[in-house]
Amino acid sequence: MSVGDVASVVKEKLLPYAGEWWFPWAVGLLSCLNTYILFLSGPLSILFISGTLARPERRFRAAFANALGATCGIASLVYIGKSSDIFPLFDGKDWETTRNLVEDYVHLGVILIAGLPIILHPMVFFAVSLMDPGSLILCVLIGR
User: How far apart are CA 40 and CA 44, in angstroms?
Assistant: First the structure.
């Protein structure tokens, strides 16, 4: 399937739905689920862009719904981590930059990392011991 074919399918099948009032909120809900289902990132980008193209005047609502969804997913991850003391271990060089940003800059580091198009799990793991849950969740919302 070529890029032109994908664009044609998106235009014909997705854009009619992308203009609906509920579409940004559905994308936000999927963004929340993406906290636990990591392979949704690519399709979510397509859905987000489609919604913005279909209704450019609602781009800020779409961005807010996406940020709110991601924040709710991270809030649930923080809650589960705090209540059960179970977090995956993110040791090694791969997450060293994330760890350094969070440990050195705490709130600003979390906002910076949350603004990047990467998974937030390691950042939550490093930040949960340095910040109270409310501050962490607010920083994720601001960054997203």
Answer: 6
Give the separation between CA 95 and CA 100, rounded to whole angstroms. Answer: 9
- By CB atoms closer than 10 A (0-12, 13-18, 19+), residue 56 is exposed
Report pLDDT digits (tens) over 121-133: 788 888 888 888 8
Q: Residue for token digits 């980008």?
A: 45
Q: How far apart are CA 102 and CA 136, in angstroms?
A: 11
Residue 139 and residue 105 in contact, taking contact as beta carbons nearer than 8 Å = no
pTM recorded for the entire structure: 0.70
Compute the distance between CA of residue 124 and CA of residue 71 in angstroms, rounded to an integer: 11
